Amino acid sequence: MVVAALTACGNPYAILPATIPNMVDTVEVYAVNGTGLNRPSGYVLSSRLPIRLGIDVTAYNFDFLYRIDPTTGPEFVPYRVVAPAAPGASTLGYPGLQSSTTAFDAIREAQQVGYVVDRPTPIEVGQVLYARSGLPNGCFLSIPYYAKLEVLSFDEEARSVRFRVLVNINCGYRQLLPGIPSQ
Q1: Contact 6, 18 (CB under 8 A)
Q2: What residues contact residue 123 under an 8 Å CB cut-off, 6+ apart?
Q3: For the chain, is the Cβ count within 10 Å smaller at the N or the C terminus?
Q4: Burial zone of 135 (CB within 10 Å; 0-12 exposed, 13-18 middle, 19+ buried)
């Protein structure tokens, strides 16, 4: 059916038109260390949802989690840090994060390379990051979804972080602006 839809357009390698609007969400997640399992501490780009580790996750199902390191402080931790691959294994297909010096609202398109997948990313209020999902993610092309996020605040008592995020879950698209993407 998918092949028929693609070849019907005359180009068997063309991506389907985007249909899912990009939107900015505000999310709060809690530190994986020092808070209860009933609190979400991870985030899944493909579903645009925070998740509770140990409750919502039964297998590979998060792109990054929030942790407060006793030495370095607040950080987002990509999946591969928690479930490392064999030494020397490829980083392709793993979710990752990449710091940006561009303001959240000024980012128009995701970066394709340069994502950090094998170590935590320290975070602070106002910091902007690109995020890339892991594979598989529901995209029949076996390519990641992309997002941008900005750290808004920390709650030291609750051990949480609030951030705003825009995730593009249209298969093959990297545009990070609100609405239906065209790229």
Answers
A1: no
A2: 74, 75, 76, 129, 151, 161
A3: N
A4: middle
Task: Report residue 90 as tokens.
Answer: 């490829």
Report the chain's mean pLDDT, rounded to a whole number.
89
Q: How many CB atoms within 10 Å of residue 58? A: 7
* Closest to 165 (Cα-Cα) out of 130, 117, 134, 126: 130
Residue range 19-35, pLDDT digits in tens: 999 999 999 999 999 99
Amino acid in position 8? A
d(CA 14, CA 108): 22
pTM attached to this predicted model: 0.88
* Whole-number Å distance between alpha carbons of 41 and 76: 10
Listed residue (163, 161, 159, 124) closest to 34, CA to CA: 159
